[in-house]
Amino acid sequence: MLDTPLGAGPEFDRIRRMAERWRERAHGLGDDCAFIEAGGEILAVSVDLSVEGVHFRRDWLQPAEIGYRAAAAALSDLAAVAAEPMALLLSLGMPAKDGDEVVHALADGVGDAAADAGALVVGGDLSRADQLLVDCCVIGRAPAPVRRRGAKPGDRLVVTGVLGGPLAALLAWRAGQEPRPEARTRFARPSPRHAAARFLASRRARAMIDVSDGLVGDLGHLLAASEVGASLWVDRIPVLPVAETAATRLGEPAWRFAARSGEEYELLAALPSDVTDEDLSRAPVPVTVIGVIEETPGLRATSSGQAVTLPTGYDHFGPA
Ligand SMILES: [Mg+2]
């Protein structure tokens, strides 16, 4: 069964149904990583699949970027639990038509992401497939893992970095345009927040998750896992300037655009209320307070004190 309750959505309903089939064989499901105790240490393990046509398109990204991004997405799950990356395994599905240059570039991308995170590439598998599939398994050391559950009423809700870049890039590609470089980089070469995770863990982060399904979706998971609610102050959500421009063009508030942008790989965390703004300013990347954890379940969003409705999170099995 699911040890950590997941938020709403068809993708997560499917996971719930699989966990029901496994019954007592399932253990510890529902967090960003699985935790395995071995030799007195806790290992964090996660796996992340990138599929051509679902997560990326070849006319958008170079093979090296496809590799980097797939590995970074998996490594981000280690950051989400404050684990130190150790190792990565790569399973690759490739069409027969792809030559050595694609293999080399993909390998370079995966290798660069592993090196940037301080992880070694320790194994993998290769198969022919109809489209490109890049599946990365990552292993880290987690002496004091931060789970999705553990947020307490009164905790400060914080997010790292600035949001909106990946959605700005996606919308530009879908419109047949080349995204602005700042937005493109955020999609093609995301930086897992390992240093920020260490910082937030050192500030006694009680619950944490990485923003892969979008701020609203992932906040929903953190609240469901912690069995709490929250107020979200949407005007505080940090937005990448080029995403602001893209939102303005759509006639959409910038915060709303940023809140529905997925595959951000920033961290969302609940910190004890005594962690001050001055202390947060010492973080290796900007950390912004965007709300407060509350006892009453549900997510209440306000803009200038007025209630606003939130966009829904990104869901692979939801309506397109
Ligand atoms: Mg995650």
Protein architecture, described:
It is a single chain. Strand 1 and strand 2 form a beta hairpin. A seven-stranded mixed sheet has the order 7-9-6-10-8-11-12, with helices on both faces. The protein has a five-stranded mixed sheet with strand order 1-2-5-3-4. It is globular, with a radius of gyration of 19 Å. The protein has ten helices and twelve strands. The protein has two domains: 111 residues, PurM-like, N-terminal domain (60s Ribosomal Protein L30, Chain: A, 2-Layer Sandwich), CATH 3.30.1330.10; 153 residues, Phosphoribosyl-aminoimidazole Synthetase, Chain A, domain 2 (Alpha-Beta Complex), CATH 3.90.650. By secondary structure, it is of the alpha+beta class. Helix 2 packs parallel to helix 3 and helix 4 packs across helix 5. Bound molecules: magnesium ion (MG). The site of magnesium ion has 6 residues, from helix 2 and strand 7.
